[in-house]
């Protein structure tokens, strides 16, 4: 939580000094984004305890791929982080492919602008979906509890960074995008054009997009958001919570 607050402070301050583009003028947009983010965080916090208990049980009973490989502890931590990130990649990709899961995920995509408050603008039920994917991956891969603790420490600041309304020099953005998701890379994913939105699914490490052929180095899109959800009403908290049923 301290890392998230620090990342918010750093990149929100950066936006205030040198924003890449003018944010959406809708009143209350950032406030409502933060409110739904808090709701999602609270639910994620409840599920994280159960996931840690599952990871401890998995390690104790030597379940999963990493147990079979009998790797040194530090390597199992590193591989565990990579496997969790791979799981997030496929969870994200499936959320775009499935009509029902997209109804949940489009709460994140329907923001008409992108800045730090977009980072955790997720429907609370999507946090349960993410937990379900991780609960499947933990025993399958044999992911240890330490990997489950390290992964958000790495991922959450990067998640704020990639949504920040900032522009890095193109050479730096391209260089970083060989390793982690950058603002220049991720804004393509928030395009209103379906072809662009169905690319750049990675959460932390971009290797998955490059490996599975979904990397898109296109320029900034003409418009952000989801067709039909661009009005001020769609940015209200109640509308965001009921979006899956609209």
Comma- or semicolon-separated keywords:
single chain, 246 residues, mainly alpha, 12 helices
What is the share of helical residues?
Answer: 55-70%
**Percent of residues in β-strands:** under 5%
Low-confidence residue ranges: none
Query: Structural class given helices, strands, pairing?
Result: mainly alpha
Distance between the termini: 32 Å
Q: Order of helices and strands, N to C? A: HHHHHHHHHHHH
Largest sheet: none
Number of helices: 12
Shape estimate? globular
Mean pLDDT: 90
**What oligomeric assembly is this protein in?**
single chain
Find the count of extended strands (DSSP E, 2+ residues): 0
Q: Radius of gyration, Cα only, in angstroms?
A: 18 Å
Supply the number of structural domains: 1
């Amino acid at each position: 939580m301290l890392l998230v607050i620090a990342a918010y402070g750093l990149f929100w301050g950066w936006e205030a000094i040198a924003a890449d583009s003018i944010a959406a003028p809708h009143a209350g947009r950032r406030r409502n984004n933060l409110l739904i983010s808090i709701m999602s965080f609270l639910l994620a916090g409840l599920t994280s305890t159960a996931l840690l208990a599952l990871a401890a049980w998995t390690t104790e009973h030597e379940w999963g791929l990493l147990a079979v490989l009998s790797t040194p502890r530090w390597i199992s931590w590193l591989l565990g982080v990579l496997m969790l990130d791979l799981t997030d990649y496929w969870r994200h990709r499936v959320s775009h492919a499935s009509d029902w899961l997209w109804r949940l995920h489009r709460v994140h995509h329907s923001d008409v602008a992108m800045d730090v408050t977009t980072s955790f603008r997720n429907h609370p039920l999507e946090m349960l979906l993410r937990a379900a994917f991780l609960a499947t991956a933990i025993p399958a891969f044999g992911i240890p509890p330490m990997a489950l603790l390290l992964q958000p420490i790495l991922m959450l600041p990067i998640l704020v960074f990639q949504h920040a309304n900032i522009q890095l020099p193109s050479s730096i953005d391209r260089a970083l995008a060989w390793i982690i998701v950058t603002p220049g890379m991720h804004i393509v994913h928030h395009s209103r054009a379906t072809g662009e939105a169905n690319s750049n699914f990675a959460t932390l490490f971009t290797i998955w997009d490059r490996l599975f052929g979904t990397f898109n180095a296109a320029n900034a899109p003409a418009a952000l958001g989801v067709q039909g959800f661009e009005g001020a009403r769609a940015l209200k908290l109640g509308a965001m919570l009921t979006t899956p049923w609209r």
